Amino acid sequence: MSRKESIKKLRDQLIRRRDALHRALEGDLSLLRELHQERTGDILDAAADTVQDELNSQLIEAESRELTAINDAIARFDNGCYGNCEGCEKPIPLTRLRAIPYATDCIDCRRKAERMTTKGGAVMWNRVFDNVEADPV
């Protein structure tokens, strides 16, 4: 199968995933609305509801981020630049696109970006205690 045919299949896959995410988000949001209307019970029930609300909220946020990435990928396809790395502008390998169809960069550019992020001030937790002396006895 040619790259062009593979890219077309990936676009179809992105559209199916986008539609599934739309349905999931609609369901998640309606569930949250229903739960807020049914509030009854004691303090423990309220605490459990709060925890569930937070989990649902985080799930909705993750689905929304993926939906945005998918919409951006479909727009790149429509603009004719889907499948090209935004960093080096070389074609992103099909194996990467099959794994992450909304990827915007090749593995090399992603690794460079991650190295720059850790050097730019992010805490490297495996190094936090390198220079700390042991507790005195």
TrEMBL record:
UniProt key word Cell division = no
Instruction: Spell out the InterPro entries in the cross-references.
Output: DnaK_N, Znf_DskA_TraR, Znf_DskA_TraR_CS
Which chain segments does UniProt annotate as zinc-finger regions (dksA C4-type)? 85-109
Q: Does the keyword Metal-binding apply?
A: yes
- Coiled-coil residues are none
For this UniProt record, the keywords arranged alphabetically read as follows:
Metal-binding, Zinc, Zinc-finger
The protein's matches in SUPFAM superfamilies, at most eight in alphabetical order, are given as: DnaK suppressor protein DksA, alpha-hairpin domain (SSF109635), Glucocorticoid receptor-like (DNA-binding domain) (SSF57716)
Gene3D superfamilies recorded: DksA, coiled-coil domain
Q: What is this protein called?
A: RNA polymerase-binding transcription factor DksA
**Mind listing the GO molecular function terms for this protein?**
zinc ion binding
Superkingdom assignment: Bacteria
Q: Tell me which Pfam families the record gives.
A: zf-dskA_traR
* Domain Zinc finger DksA/TraR C4-type: from-to ranges: 82-115
